[in-house]
Amino acid sequence: MHTLINITQNHILDVTLLAWLTAQILKVIIVLIIQKKLDFNRLVGAGGMPSSHSALVMALASSVGRFEGVQSAEFAICVCLALVVMYDASNVRRAAGEQAKILNYMMDHWIETTPELFSKELKELLGHTPIEVISGAILGLIFGIFV
Question: Is there a contact between 50 and 136 (Cβ–Cβ < 8 Å)?
Answer without folding.
Answer: yes
